[in-house]
Amino acid sequence: MMENSIKELIQKEIEAIGNIPVDFSFELAVNKIKNKVHGISRCGKVVMSGMGKAGQIALNISTTLCSTGTPAVYLHPSEAQHGDLGILQENDVLILLSNSGKTREILELIELSKNMYPHISIICITGKKDSPLANKSDIVLHTGDAEEICPLGLTPTISTTLMTVIGDILVVELMKKIKFSKKEYAKRHHSGYLGQKSKEESNKLNISVGIISWNSPETLTKTLTSYSERGFLDNVNDVCIFFNEVSDEDKQVANHFGIPYIGKETNIGGVEGFKELIKQCKTDNILLLENDWILVEDLSTTLDRLQSGLALLNNGYDVIRYRHRTNPGYPHYSFRFKGTELEYYDDWHKILSPHLIDSLHWLDPSKEFPDKIQKDGEYFTTTSRYGNWTGNPCLYKKDFYLNTTEPFSFDMNLERNIAYWWPRQSFKIAHGEGLFSHVDIAKYGTYSNLNDPWGHTKVNKL
């Protein structure tokens, strides 16, 4: 049956791709292109060439490079002999494709190119690593020389697949090297589906949102509703939920809101759950939330405050806190120190006033304690001496969170484990007007007035 034949052909293609020799040549090639094209002088480009079917693959690679931030052109090897070689410049990288490594026009192109620029860089993609083409190239990317699946063993089939895959590898690794963004992608794609999608994506905040939940589907539903109604989830790069002791109801909530989730059958704790979320996030910046933090600001305010916090994070701050200043929710541990802000001693931290930044919820600490807390625009700023580690909503660089918490993650009591060490460091903390209010229906019921300035109003459960 043809169905079996097709499956066999597909399998042969898959096996051939899996047998591409992966060695240091790929890294050399990517670095060569990056240095020549994206280096200090930025005066080079990639010049692709190949004859016949290999030429079509070379053309495709060149256009894909262009669309992903690396200038490239296709040079037909025959036309090169009739004047088109003038496209070549001294700092270019010549990438030549030939499965046999013996294509006459390609070998002649090398001679013509070196006649103009003796030191021009040459990379080849070939099935024959000991071919004339390989011997004349600076870097050889070997396809593995798999047999064609054509019944005659002649028509370029697997060989062109392998060239395409190697081209894709170069494109993707270069994108990583030059940190090519969705915003830059959108600049190069103005029309069509990809153009529209990239524009939409590039307008999103470069923030991943991680939400952790445990046996609280009702609370999570209320929280996600506050996010969804305000358009919050549509304006960040990516969102994921982590469920401890995941239930069918948990899964239903996540699916209802269209949010990807990770579910564990057991309770591995909050910090380990956050780590799992960080592994999944697609940006370097992550906003970590527990399931009982509702959003109480409109979309415009939310985006403005996240954007300004992201700017601080990119300028040396380590933690940006987002508990709402005038509507913090209930309970709030630090309110017990109202009026004795500089006098209380904390047994966990073994130090005076480790939560001083929290006084912003009832006064202006930059005026009351200017030597300890300052004001930078809309943000109150301090160090970890007066800004305790917290499980409240915070924006972090993901590497900072992972590196900081790792030594203290030996059990589920991170906040207690880290308490002594944290205030004796000099991490930079910022807390502005905030975005999120604490509302846990399961524990504390709902609230008759979410605008209560101290977040203390408690009513019966629904």
Question: How are the SSEs ordered, and which strands pair?
Answer:
Elements: H1 2-18, H2 24-38, E1 46-50, H3 53-67, E2 72-74, H4 77-80, E3 93-97, H5 104-116, E4 121-126, H6 132-135, E5 139-142, H7 158-177, H8 182-188, H9 192-202, E6 205-214, H10 217-229, E7 236-244, H11 248-257, E8 261-263, H12 270-280, E9 285-290, E10 293-295, H13 299-313, E11 319-323, E12 345-346, E13 351-352, H14 365-368, E14 374-376, E15 379-383, E16 394-397, H15 398-405, H16 414-419, E17 428-438, H17 441-444
Helix pairs in contact: 1-7, 2-7, 3-7, 8-9, 10-11
Question: Which descriptors would you attach to this protein?
Answer:
single chain, 462 residues, alpha/beta, Rossmann fold, Spore Coat Polysaccharide Biosynthesis Protein SpsA, Chain A, 2 domains, 10-stranded mixed beta sheet, 38% helix
Tell me what the structure shows:
The chain is α/β, with parallel strands linked by helices. The protein has two domains: 2-182, Rossmann fold (3-Layer(aba) Sandwich); 204-444, Alpha-Beta Complex (Spore Coat Polysaccharide Biosynthesis Protein SpsA, Chain A). Helix content is 38%, strand content 19%. It has 17 helices and 17 strands. It has helices spanning 2-18, 24-38, 53-67, 77-80, 104-116, 132-135, 158-177, 182-188, 192-202, 217-229, 248-257, 270-280, 299-313, 365-368, 398-405, 414-419, 441-444, and strands at residues 46-50, 72-74, 93-97, 121-126, 139-142, 205-214, 236-244, 261-263, 285-290, 293-295, 319-323, 345-346, 351-352, 374-376, 379-383, 394-397, 428-438. The strands form three sheets. Strands 6, 7, 8, 9, 10, 11, 14, 15, 16 and 17 form a ten-stranded mixed sheet that branches. It has a five-stranded parallel sheet with strand order 2-1-3-4-5, with helices on both faces. Strands 12-13 form a two-stranded antiparallel ribbon. β1 (46-50), α3 and β2 (72-74) form a beta-alpha-beta unit. α1 packs across α7 (158-177), α2 crosses α7 and α8 packs antiparallel against α9. The protein is elongated and about 85 Å long. Residues 447-462 have low confidence and may be disordered.
